[in-house]
Amino acid sequence: xxxxxxxxxxxxxxxxxxxxxxxxxxxxxxxxxxxxxxxxxxxxxxxxxxxxxxxxxxxxxxxxxxxxxxxxxxxxxxxxxxxxxxxxxxxxxxxxxxxxxxxxxxxxxxxxxxxxxxxxxxxxxxxxxxxxxxxxxxxx
Amino acid sequence: xxxxxxxxxxxxxxxxxxxxxxxxxxxxxxxxxxxxxxxxxxxxxxxxxxxxxxxxxxxxxxxxxxxxxxxxxxxxxxxxxxxxxxxxxxxxxxxxxxxxxxxxxxxxxxxxxxxxxxxxxxxxxxxxxxxxxxxxxxxx
DNA sequence: GCAATTGATGTAATAACATTACATTTCAAA
DNA sequence: TTTGAAATGTAATGTTATTACATCAATTGC
Lengths: 140, 140
Prior knowledge:
- Two copies of one chain form a homodimer.
- Chain A is of the alpha+beta class.
- Chain A has a single domain, classed as Winged helix-like DNA-binding domain superfamily/Winged helix DNA-binding domain (Arc Repressor Mutant, subunit A).
- Helices cover 36% and strands 21% of the residues of chain A.
- Chain A has helices spanning 12-23, 30-36, 45-57, 107-120, 136-139; strands at residues 61-64, 69-72, 91-95, 101-104, 123-134.
- Chain A has a three-stranded mixed sheet. A two-stranded antiparallel sheet of chain A has the order 1-2.
- In chain A, strand 3 and strand 4 (101-104) form a beta hairpin.
- The first copy, chain A, is globular and about 50 Å long.
- The relative contact order of chain A is 0.15.
- Chains A and B meet through strand 3, helix 4 and strand 5 of A and strand 3, helix 4 and strand 5 of B.
- Strand 5 of chain A pairs antiparallel with strand 5 of chain B.
- Chain A binds a DNA duplex through helix 1 and helix 3.
């Protein structure tokens, strides 16, 4: 047991895309990723989008909706709330100055939004929480 | 007193764009709005984007980041938390079947995210909360 | 072994969303 | 009445994402 929850062996393209994202300090757009991978034979956006779709499905990559960009999941195997990836809603704090992204969970927030949904009969499929602003360093 | 908090008289284009959004059941993209306003002399996307920028600034329109689309603010003058627009973070529940959007506040969520930010020294400027899923009717 | 199916890939073209740059107009305040 | 700020008009371009279709590779069932 304790095998990766939802990360089957990655294909070549998925590995390339994940590695680029994982090594990046900042979120990257699909086209920026494409440019980084031209040397590895990537020629078209679809190659990137397809890999991103799968990686997102596996929970290894997150899409930042307010940026139209992507980040590698910051949670390593088996974090706080259950084994590995596949946890509840993830929230992001995005620094508009240095582009650093902090990823976090908040059970209370999850729970509260869940309660709201339940009270309205709304069935959530995906929840986005993104805080834009200035990180401690940049705000100083 | 009790004058609108942040809604100076709208210009012609702002009024046209707001009216289209306000009458719509569903969120609209900038280009959809443009098409609706061709009869009124709109020719270019920028006319729409400029109006949307101002309306968003006034708090009369919200951008749905996960849809790249816009909705008129559902809160009428002087809602629960302070006078009119200009309240805290607004959250959205977006039905992926019928496109209906529910707008709501949750002080507890606001507060919780605010506390997280404070604990990290992060200074929020704008917070996005969007729940995608199925509304009660469509989930049935 | 070998068709049949399924998932991944390659490529081109196009669609959808958004901004830059620059010229012109409007209108209220000095 | 000038003048300065905001709004507008228009064209061109930049950025993000998808559709369509052909090919390739691995697995499965026979």
